[in-house]
Amino acid sequence: MSEYNKPLPPPSVESEPFWDGCKRHELLVPRCDRCGYHWFPPAATCPKCWSTDWTWTRVSGKGRVYSFGVYHRAYHKGFAEELPYALVVVELDEGPRLTTNVVGCDPGELSCDMPVEVVFDDVTEDRTLYKFKPANDG
Amino acid sequence: MSTNLSGKYAIVGVGQSPLGKVPEMGPIGLFAVAAKNAIEDAGLRKEDVDGLITRGPDDVYCHHQKVGEALGLNVTYSTSTANGGASQTMAVAMACMAIEAGVCDTVVVGYGRDTWSRTHRNAEAKQAVASRPRTYSEFGSEFGQFGAPVNYAVAARRHMERFGTTKAQLGAIAVAFRNHARKNPHAFMQKPLTLDEYLSARLIVDPLCLYDCSVFIDGAGAVVVTSAERARDLRQPPAYVLGFGFGNRLSGWYAGDNMITTGAKEAGEAAYKMAGIGPKDVDTAQIYDCFTHMVLLQLEDYGFCAKGEGGPFVGSGALEADGVLPTNTSGGQLSEGHIEGMLQVLEGARQVRREHTPERQVKDCDIALVSGHGGNTVCQSALILGREAG
Asked: Could you tell me if the ipTM is greater than 0.90?
């Protein structure tokens, strides 16, 4: 197996629990204990009510494609062989939007609002990425 | 109680450096030449300048200080801005506010960068770009998110699926600005561009192709801002600042509907209110055009057409010289060259001064709207310039 050659920025102090969740194949996002709002990326206060009381919460992993752009030019050699590939914005059923890739689907088959569900890709021994695939149930 | 500044201040001088490939000059030198030309255009002297608001390469610490040193200036008020492409229109407004507050009288505002030369000046520059350390961002780089075009590609895709906007309509923007550029001898892109050429161009991040992206050049632009009272005694007809406004949707491009309706809506509403006008009163628009789709969004948000109708609006030829809203009449960043919106401030002032040759001059031009956009896509500033003070 060839060495993984795509960038893997190191987790920050605020994102480490998220990536640990990915390793366990669990998608976690911060949920406010006070107002119930879910947000992403992680931050120390609820962006809606500014509460500092919140909990990493496992979400359904279901959502819809909000939009996407299809790269035809490689900005990084690790992605050269993937061209054309899509950078996809997924809106989770709980609200937050994540930038990600959709697997098991050619870029030409993507459309806004198509239902997707999370899958986990163990790209190295230490790191697991969250990706999405077309959802079967719609 | 608020004070209405409409018509109290004016752009009284405009200047630019050589534009295009200028490898013999650095970013501070380019800025200094533009500033000198703007001050001379106004008929002012170095000693008259007591304010300086600048922006240049983001890696220059206290940029205004470097510019001031190059110009040998001592001033009372100076700062660099950090609001991306929204900085330059905002800086004109900041100059008006500073003068109103009584801290200075005459302010130079500008932007300069050696964007082409940074990566092409010599073998060393080319090597540096090939081996430069990349900065990666979490929740993006892992999935192949690099560069600015994707943010606008994602926004364009959503707009297309929701409102039926087409590639050909985005192409109409690129073609219109190229047509304008071909009348501007300083514009970088002089080759004709047809819609067919646009539609067959190589894709960068689909739906955006090569001609949807602005062109990186070396260059600088500067303007001089002072009171309307003082402006009347100066060399050039004043371009009165009739209105300005800001809208910064800092919650993020990917949050809410921020990539459908931008901060230009708030910026425009505030600027129109201050100027006491509406979009129908605008004779020419100079819209920040890092990418074609951003023009379309702003035209909607500034009220030149309804939300979702930007495609048919630009497709009708509205932005051409004989259209209902001649836009980016110097070629814009898509064809004149990308100087972070500063050249569009100059063009707005030149149009209301009515100084162009007849083929470039917007007929009976009284009012120009100039927009700035940037700061990781969510910041907007608007400026309304007028031939008369009100």
From this structure: yes
